[in-house]
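Dear colleagues,

As part of the handover before I leave the project, I'm documenting each prediction I ran so the next person doesn't have to rerun anything. This entry is a single chain, and its sequence is reproduced below.
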Amino acid sequence: MIRIAMISHGYYPLIGGAERQLAAVSPALQAVGVEVHILTRRHADLPTYEEIEGVAVHRLPVPGPKFTASLAFTHYGLQKIAEIRPQLIHAHELFSATTTAVRAKKRWGMPIVVTAHRSGPIGDVQRLGQKFLGHQRLRTFAGAVDHFITISREIDGELMGIGVPAERLSFIPNAVDTTRFAPATAEQRAMLRTQLGIPAEAEVVVFIGRLAPEKRVNHLVSLWPTIRQAHPNAHLLLLGVGPEEGKLRQMAGDGVRFCGSIDNVVPYLQTADIFCLPSVAEGLSVAMLEAMSTGLTALVTAVGGAPETITHSANGWLVPPDDVPALQQSLLTLLANPAQRASIGTAARQTVLDQFSLSSIALQLRGLYDKLVS
């Protein structure tokens, strides 16, 4: 058994992509002999310590404004690391998590691994580079981190651009619980639609993610009246909350439903016909992989890891970012062709089974941990 500390700004019950990924992978790591301790920020009404699916979750107090909260996160994180005495630290995202890991390595000497989850203008490298002393921090991280895990080749290029050699990079993608995220039978699907208040004859497109500018949900909402003209039974389900919600609600017309923050997205995926993610930037979308595992056609923008995962019209559907006419035409094409959607969905699930299963990714991580600890 190897003991590790996972450091992440957020963890379950927060339901962003990185949080869902950690919540899925951590129990799978325990199953292959990794004792996982999660160090994360404490939010109101959550306990300072609990075990979730056998994984120890330590929540750190982070009061005050953003800058002092970052200092507090590192301070209390180091205290907890001294108590846990991990053999390795795995930080998720740059910023405070990696700062804490680097400080711990300097103090106690354990190896550190960092996963960069996003690329592009909202990714770790570009965002940190824009901050005060950001480039200095990037150079420090490039020299101090023993190994970086990337989830797309785009992130590889950004890390090499700040001086990380290729031999300290490993591509280990996000993972999916393919047993949980599985297609529903026709009978199950009909029952789920009744439970969720979705008409049996509806053509359902689902979005899962933060209602934030980079997700470009406004594109979906703005073109929905045109979709409804051709497909009067088309319904758009938006799962998530965020800063754009008020504006989107003002824009929304018939057939658009705001579902809020949903803990268990499986029933919504199983009842949908198409998953759509029109983001301008991503790493490797967990929501996209979960939709593919459920047997849906994923209509996504060709950003981050999507073009490496999807072959257009074979196991998914790609459109350029910020190309609203292409997004609209793709939706119309897919809604009009259920047989094509079914074929794409079958291939999508097989892709996830072959490349992104929890057991496979957990073994890859365990192998890297063993190599670094030894």
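The two ends are 13 Å apart (CA to CA). The chain has a mean pLDDT of 94.

All the best with the project,
I.
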